[in-house]
Amino acid sequence: MNKNLINDKILFSLPLNSAYISAARLTASSIANRLGFSTAEIEDVKAAVSEGCTFIIKQFKEYKEDFFSVSFITGDKSLLIEIEMNRAVENLDEDDIGILMIKALMDEANFTSKNNKNLLITMKKVHRERELF
Amino acid sequence: MSENIKYNDNSENKIWEVSLTGEIDIFNSEAVKEELLEMTDKKEQNIIIDCKDLSYIDSTGLSVLVALLKKVKAYSGNVSLRNLMPNVNKVIKITNLDKLFIIEGDVDE
């Protein structure tokens, strides 16, 4: 792998507006492509990021003025994604179809709340199908 | 009217021929749902959905397909999904929806 691409963090914030989820998908796709993930892996990352953003928007739809963050952290043969909203979630529905999709598409997925003050979705995709450039 | 859906009444075969295109996500899934349900209000017949130009569908889009299937099953009809792209086929499989819909055509895995 190109060592210049390890441990970089790409961070951006999005309003709680579903119109911009496609921007998160495009960014996820672009970064995963740059890291050398296969086409199937890129589609998995893209779909999981989109589901994470959709989950946040559905949970906090009454806070239309708020923003949430999406971070991409490049690793050695892996990509870590953190989606965070600085508001507490009352009941985290682990049976939500979006959550189930994220768990199925990614190698690791966690849904946590720090001191009941935020919602943090972390997910990781490990490169398997070929060596990174 | 959603840009992501077109449909045609094949009255000879008593089938709604539907094409879904582009990306269906939380932003446009409700508009797609309204059109599909309006379509079945006009005539109760089986539905074939061609997905060859559907590049992405999220969980809210899948929920729309399930709502459609529920309505069609109520009048003893069927919904077939045709020409799925590999990524769309994958999300349909991981959510077990391939057991509810009739899946037609080759999927290029």
Total discrete domains of chain B: 1
Q: Regions of chain A with pLDDT < 50 over 5+ consecutive residues?
A: none
The first-level CATH class of chain A is given as Alpha Beta
Tell me the helix content of chain B. Answer: 25-40%
CATH class wording of chain B? Alpha Beta
For the sheet with most strands of chain A, the description reads: 5 strands, antiparallel
Q: Any idea what the CATH superfamily of chain B is called?
A: STAS domain
Largest Cβ-defined interface: A-B, 22 and 16 residues
What secondary-structure arrangement, pairings included, does this model have?
The complex is a heterodimer of chains A (133) and B (109).
Chain A lengths: L8 E7 L5 H14 L4 H21 L7 E9 L2 E8 L11 H9 L2 E5 L6 E8 L7
Antiparallel strand pairs in A: 1-2, 2-3, 3-5, 4-5
Helix pairs in contact in A: 1-2, 2-3
Chain B lengths: L4 E6 L4 E10 L4 H14 L3 E12 L1 H16 L4 E4 L3 H9 L7 E3 L5
Helix pairs in contact in B: 1-2
Q: Could you characterize the architecture of this molecule?
A:
Chain A has helices spanning 21-34, 39-59, 97-105, and strands spanning 9-15, 67-75, 78-85, 108-112, 119-126. Chain A is an alpha+beta fold. Chain A has one domain (3-126): Histidine kinase-like ATPase, C-terminal domain (Heat Shock Protein 90). In chain A, α1 (21-34) packs antiparallel against α2 (39-59) and α2 packs antiparallel against α3. The mean pLDDT of chain A is 91. Chain B is built from three helices and five strands, in the order ββαβαβαβ. Chain B has helices spanning 29-42, 59-74, 86-94; strands at 5-10, 15-24, 46-57, 79-82, 102-104. In chain B, strands 1-2-3-4-5 form a five-stranded mixed beta sheet. Chain A binds chain B through residues 18-19, 21-22, 25, 40, 43-44, 46-47, 50-51, 54, 57-58, 96-98, 100-101, 104-105, and chain B through 23, 25-27, 56, 58-60, 62-63, 86-87, 90-91, 94-95.
